[in-house]
Specification:
The protein is α/β, with parallel strands linked by helices. The protein folds into three domains: about 190 residues, FAD/NAD(P)-binding domain; about 100 residues; about 100 residues, Polyamine Oxidase, Chain A, domain 2 (Alpha-Beta Complex). The chain contains 14 helices and 20 strands. The strands form five sheets. It has a seven-stranded mixed beta sheet with strand order 8-7-16-17-18-15-19, with helices on both faces. The chain binds flavin-adenine dinucleotide. Flavin-adenine dinucleotide binds next to helix 1, strand 15 and helix 14.
């Protein structure tokens, strides 16, 4: 079958890859001139890379890791020590660590929590441990039920002191969905905790060894093209055209950069776009269908990714750091963590600025100035006295609608990859899969989408499958 896929983020590319494996021919149509969607990155005039987001891969990302293995690029994941490192609020410039010893899960996680006495007191650890018992005993069904509560509400229900939120979960909630614990659904935090506690390497982190479009997305594109598939940039989906029976008859695309608009015809059609642009392109007759109308409840959350290049080394730490700051979420010195960005003498800090709703509309200079203020607490030794670190340059990447905002009640709104329209499917990290709105979720959604298409193709009589011309980009 020929399958037209709108969107070359990780979900669209993964869908294309697994369709190839099943013997189908994917045609990927990406709106922008760069691969990767939320993992897209660009080079500045000096050749330095800047990214849509600081991206961390976890041991728990089984589907992502399998994809790396299938592409033979596993060596591009740079695994770090099995730890979580938080900035200490009370003592600027110092860190508190959760170190996971070499023991099977959940013993390594318990040892990491029990071994940290900077952030949680013993009564807090005990109250939290008791609170987690239903999640451990009842697993995912309990975790799904908890989607009615925010994380702050869940902690209050279990009599866990608010201080635990301030100490640990403010940072974790911002890292997971760029929002605070009073907004995030407890299902999100419990899903992450479950993976971390149940899988020995679940919380171990890796950085990609370079920019994601070239180091991760391009190998998928090469794989797809080598098997007869196509990937086209600068090809935005403009309209989903319907046949008289209500099924999709074509994707109308393009019309930018002087190119003629085109009608792409295929046997099956996939939207691997984020939920916000998908809603804008839904054909009128579909909008009242519950499967599509419930998408109204899924809305992208704003986030800002900041890159700061300094004239010296600010830290030697080769790991992700949880800032525990009001303005910032996680950050890393990419000159230590990422081979392609390596510099023995100068730091490049990549920092996630969240929650960003009050900042997304402000000028870059204001955002950078506010971030530099925060750095006085994170690196006091470099931002006081006579010989202070000098900022060489900065890049700010704003994403006004990133992953969907995981407030309580969203789980039931997430659509399955198979839609009620027989030849139309969805992929994307917002669609239903057992991982969160993450790279792993995107890859898994693409795989599940390919499986759904494959199932539908084996249900179809041979005469109905096909019919599209082999020339994939048929100009109208
Ligand atoms: C700042 C930041 C930090 C993050 N950190 C992490 C992390 O550490 N770990 C993690 O696992 N995840 C992280 N994520 C989330 C992760 O990046 C996403 O969950 C994942 O990349 C989403 O992939 P996707 O394919 O579902 O969507 P997208 O990546 O959004 O891809 C959708 C694609 O559709 C294209 N498109 C849109 N409209 C059209 C159209 N009309 N026609 C054709 N194409 C169109 C877009 O250009 C895009 O390429 C982070 C995200 C951000 C923004």
């Amino acid at each position: 079958m020929r399958v037209a896929i709108a969107g070359a983020g990780l979900a669209g590319l993964s869908c294309a890859k697994y369709l190839c494996d099943a013997g189908h021919v994917p045609i990927v149509l990406e709106a922008r001139d760069v691969l990767g969607g939320k993992v897209a990155a660009w080079q500045d005039e000096d050749g330095d890379w800047y990214e849509t987001g600081l991206h961390i891969f976890f041991g728990a990302y089984r589907n992502m890791r399998q994809l790396f293995a299938e592409l033979n690029i596993e060596d591009r994941l740079q695994w770090k020590s099995h730890s979580m490192i938080f900035n200490q609020k009370e003592v600027p410039g110092t860190y508190s660590r959760f170190d996971f010893p070499d023991l099977p899960a959940p013993l390594n996680g318990l040892a990491a929590i029990l071994g940290n006495n900077d952030m949680l007191t013993w009564p807090e650890k005990i109250a939290f441990g008791i609170g987690l018992v239903p999640a451990i005993l009842r697993g995912q069904s309990y975790v799904e039920e908890c989607d009615q509560y925010s994380w702050s509400e869940w902690l209050a229900l279990h009599n866990i002191p608010e201080r635990v939120n301030d100490e640990v979960f403010l940072a974790m909630s911002k890292a997971l969905n760029f929002i605070n614990p009073d907004e995030i659904s407890s299902t999100v935090v419990l899903t992450a905790l479950n993976r971390f506690l149940q899988e020995t390497d679940g919380s171990q982190m890796a950085f990609l060894d370079g920019n994601p479009p070239q180091r991760l997305c391009q190998p998928i594109v090469d794989y797809v093209r080598a098997r007869g598939g196509e990937v086209h940039l600068d090809s935005p989906l403009r309209e989903i055209q319907l046949a008289e029976d209500g099924s999709v008859s074509g994707f109308r695309i393009g019309g930018i950069k002087g190119k003629e608009p085109q009608l792409i015809q295929a046997d099956a059609y996939v939207s691997a776009m984020p939920v916000d642009p998908l809603k804008l392109l839904l054909p009128e007759p579909w909008k009242a269908m519950p499967y599509f109308s419930k998408l109204d409840g899924l809305v992208g959350v704003p986030v800002i990714n900041i890159h700061l290049w300094f004239d010296r080394k600010l830290t030697e730490i080769d790991h992700l750091l949880f800032s525990r700051s009001d303005l910032l979420s996680v950050y890393a010195d990419m000159s230590n963590t990422c081979r392609e960005y390596e510099d023995p003498n100068k730091s490049m800090l990549e920092l996630v600025f969240a929650p960003a709703k009050d900042w997304i509309g402000r000028p870059d200079a204001e955002i950078v100035a506010a971030t530099l203020e925060e750095l006085k607490r994170l690196f006091p030794m470099h931002f006081s006295g006579n010989d202070q670190a000098q900022l060489l340059k900065a890049k700010v990447v704003k994403t006004p609608q990133s992953v969907y905002k995981t407030v309580p009640g969203c789980q039931q709104l997430r659509p399955d990859q198979a839609s009620p329209i027989p030849n139309f499917f969805l992929a994307g990290c917002f669609t239903m899969q057992r991982y969160l709105a993450s790279m792993e979720g995107a890859v898994l959604s693409g795989k599940q989408c390919a499986e759904a298409i494959n199932r539908s193709s084996s249900d179809q009589p041979a005469a109905q499958s096909g019919g599209a011309s082999p020339a994939s980009l048929a100009a109208v």
